Amino acid sequence: MRVGVFYHPDFAEHGYITIRHRVRPAYEALCKQPYASKLQFFEPAITQLHQELLSQTHTGNHINAVKAQGFHEVALLSAAGVVSAAEMLAAQQLDGAFCFVGTAGHHAGRNYSWGFCYYNDAAMAILRLRQLGVQRILILDMDPHSGDGTRDLVALDPDLVHINFFADEDYSYQDNRLNNYGIRLENATDQVFLQAVDEHLPRAENVEFIIVIFGHDSHCEDYGDFYLTVEGYRKFTHRMRAFAGTRPLLYILSGGSNPQVASSAIPAVVEALL
Q1: φ, ψ dihedrals at 48, nearest 5°
Q2: CA distance 95 to 5
Q3: How far apart are alpha carbons 252 and 137 in whole angstroms?
Q4: What is the pLDDT of residue 241?
Q5: Residue 102 pLDDT grade (very low, low, confident, very high; cuts 50, 70, 90)
Q6: Running DSSP on this structure, what letter comes out for residue 155?
Q7: pLDDT tier at 215, thresholds 50, 70, 90
Q8: Do residues 257 and 223 touch, judged by C-beta distance below 8 A?
Q9: For the segment 54-69, what is each residue's pLDDT rounded down to a tens digit?
Q10: Where does 58-120 have alpha helices with state H?
């Protein structure tokens, strides 16, 4: 498998304080793996295209608010890496990709954001994929904090399947017409989580492109309310790889603060992508 890793040093230098300190240790641990020579590494850069996608995704007021908070450059750079990965996958230059970020994206709606998220990287990538002719897309969000920002941006798009596993809210939702599924899992272990994946993944059988929002705050030693393990992440990624088959598979880093967890979880995921 041709797997790309998208990383920029600014993610660790200028990212949001709660999550940035896990980035460099995880990247360095990945580079030390015996399979690292099989990976392709890319350093994203912001272009005019990314500026245009940003203005199509978020309001001017929101963009100005992010600039005022000092996270515009690193958030846009994070999204640029995701968009670049999506382009290469759509062009069949890669089979899979893992994108590091300096700020996350799934709590960023059209005119708001919270929880270390500023610009919705997945939504921007979807806009670009649509420009390239990719229509039917799956977003599977396994960060234990609900991807409300993504839902705000894509909920009305019937060609986009949004399967959202979470632990932080007291409701679930199911819209078969618009393909929005919110699945609350309480105290999810590997077994509980993987069973839920097996149950709900068939809803996306006809998609062309697969995006996974990967938050290692779902780990039992991190700050979320799932209790997953590195072995669980490995099994999950093998499932996603098997489900994808020849279809592109894009992993986007989301929540997670523990550097030790990141340094074992991310190499395990990337190895499974290979």
Answers
A1: -60, -35
A2: 12
A3: 15
A4: 98
A5: very high
A6: T
A7: very high
A8: yes
A9: 999 999 999 999 999 9
A10: 60-69, 72-90
User: If you search the block for the tokens 């500023």, which residue do you land on?
Assistant: 118
Query: 49 by DSSP, 3-state: which?
Result: helix
Q: What share of the chain is helix, strand, coil (3-state, %, to 5)?
A: 45, 15, 35
User: Residue 93 carries which side chain, given as an amino acid letter?
Assistant: Q
- CB contact set of 64 (below 8 Å; sequence gap of 6+): none
**Is residue 171 scored above 80 in pLDDT?**
no
Q: Are strands 209-214 and 40-42 parallel, antiparallel or unpaired?
A: unpaired
How far is Cα 242 from Cα 80, in angstroms, rounded to an integer?
27
Distance of alpha carbon 158 from alpha carbon 65, whole angstroms: 30
Q: Please, are residues 243 and 272 in contact by the beta-carbon 8 Å criterion?
A: no
Rounded CA-CA distance 165/140 in Å is 8
Q: Are 178 and 158 in contact (CB under 8 A)?
A: yes
Domains in the chain (CATH in brackets) are: 3-273 (3.40.800.20)
Q: What is the mean pLDDT of residues 6-28?
A: 97
Instruction: Tell me the longest C-alpha to C-alpha distance in the chain.
Output: 46
Coil, strand or helix at 100? coil
Alpha-helical runs (H) found in 114-227: 121-131, 148-154, 190-200
Cα→Cα distances 82→44, 58, 231, Å: 9, 16, 25
